[in-house]
Task: inverse folding
């Protein structure tokens, strides 16, 4: 990203209000794009095509559609239904004009421990997506049943070995789960589809409760986001930096106010990142 404008994004789940209000707030704060939560779209009065048009009118790209759950580690007989659900989501994405879907690791107690089964199932999803020109971006949730770290996800994606399956790096999952920049060692930038930024205060909570209720914007918590993100940039990552903030308090405040606060935080973070990496990066925020 040396000398380039960094693409910025915000997940719609980060702020409150209707989807129409979220789109307006994210655009008004100066972001380049957004991650679209499937539930936000379902609750909206807009059709997928209308949502796509609304985003385009506001100068926003839809950088990812998310999340797709219970995708891997399921019995073979259930995977038939998984593929049916997945194809249904791909139809929605076609109307949206979105080419990236975020798939998260299985968090259910009955998830099958076989890594080979997870690899086979993710490969099938990625191949199905590729038929529609869509890339699968796989994220390990820190409370995943068997795939719960970036190291786990990286190994799984490596075993799949398909160019249309990429990793998602979420700074909360990475740091709260006990990993750091070392987990990104020798990770090619092109293997990462999306970087999600979230800070948090250090709390003595289970990981899911900590993540769902206490994330905050970069610089507002206790996590050191700079080293891992700098490692990604130095490794060649050139995609969006997206704010994905689960925080009930944020969603009770006006969407425009929270989006502007997030933009200010991200602008400061990118300035510090540029200084750390010598990238001389800029942003429209």
Result:
């Amino acid at each position: 990203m040396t000398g380039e404008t960094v693409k910025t994004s915000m997940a719609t789940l980060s702020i409150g209000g209707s989807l129409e209000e979220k789109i307006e707030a994210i655009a008004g704060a100066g972001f380049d794009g957004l991650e679209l939560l499937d539930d936000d779209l379902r609750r909206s009065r807009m059709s997928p095509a209308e949502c796509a048009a609304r985003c385009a009118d506001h100068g926003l790209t839809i950088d990812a559609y998310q999340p797709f759950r219970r995708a891997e580690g399921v019995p073979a007989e259930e995977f038939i239904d998984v593929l049916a659900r997945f194809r249904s989501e791909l139809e929605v994405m076609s109307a949206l004009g979105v080419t990236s879907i975020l798939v998260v690791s299985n968090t259910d107690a009955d998830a099958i421990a076989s890594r080979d089964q997870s690899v086979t199932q993710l490969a099938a999803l990625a191949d199905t997506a590729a038929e529609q020109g869509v890339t699968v971006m796989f994220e390990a949730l820190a409370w995943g049943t068997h795939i719960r770290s970036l190291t786990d996800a990286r190994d799984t994606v490596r075993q799949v070995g398909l160019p249309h399956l990429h990793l998602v790096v979420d700074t909360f999952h990475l740091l709260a789960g006990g990993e750091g920049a070392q987990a990104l060692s020798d990770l090619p930038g092109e293997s990462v589809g999306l970087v999600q930024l979230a800070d948090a205060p250090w709390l003595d909570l289970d990981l899911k409760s900590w993540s769902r209720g206490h994330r905050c914007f970069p610089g507002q918590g206790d996590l050191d986001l700079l080293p891992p993100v700098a490692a990604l940039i130095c490794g060649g990552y050139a995609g969006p930096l997206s704010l994905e903030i689960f925080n009930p308090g944020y969603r009770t405040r006006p969407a425009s106010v929270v989006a502007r606060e997030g933009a200010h935080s991200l602008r400061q973070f990118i300035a510090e990142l540029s200084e750390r990496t010598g990238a001389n990066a800029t942003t429209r925020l």
